User: Which sequence fits this backbone?
């Protein structure tokens, strides 16, 4: 059974930083074949694309609202993808999800393109 498990969420003041991790488990999960995306969902809102990293990390794309503040990276040997979040704002408050798109790319930006999802981790930014 393939699983993605996020961690690192929490409560932080505006201007602060958090680093989210998403670890893949499951013996047959070929992590390096998957583009990995981050999404977020605030209460009462639709799930929103945050960013995506291609299979070997050569290409990364961010939504405009997080460019320059968030950084996605991955370690295929550890089967883990990271989301470094700096200069956090109250509007970044949401549940953050990682997701895996087999054979995807930096163009994988819609939730429906992703095959596997984590359970989410809450990020709360206080003003």
Assistant:
């Amino acid at each position: 059974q393939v699983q993605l498990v996020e961690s690192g969420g929490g409560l932080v003041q505006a201007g602060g930083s958090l680093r989210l991790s998403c670890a893949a488990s499951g013996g047959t999960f070929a992590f390096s074949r998957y583009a990995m995306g981050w999404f977020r969902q605030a209460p009462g809102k639709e799930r929103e694309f945050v960013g995506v990293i291609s299979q070997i990390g050569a290409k990364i794309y961010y939504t405009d609202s997080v460019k320059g503040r968030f950084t996605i990276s991955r370690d295929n040997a550890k089967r883990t993808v990271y989301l470094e979040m700096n200069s956090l704002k109250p509007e970044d408050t949401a549940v953050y999800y990682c997701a895996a798109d087999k054979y995807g790319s930096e163009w994988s930006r819609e939730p429906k393109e992703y095959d596997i999802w984590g359970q989410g981790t809450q990020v709360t930014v206080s003003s």
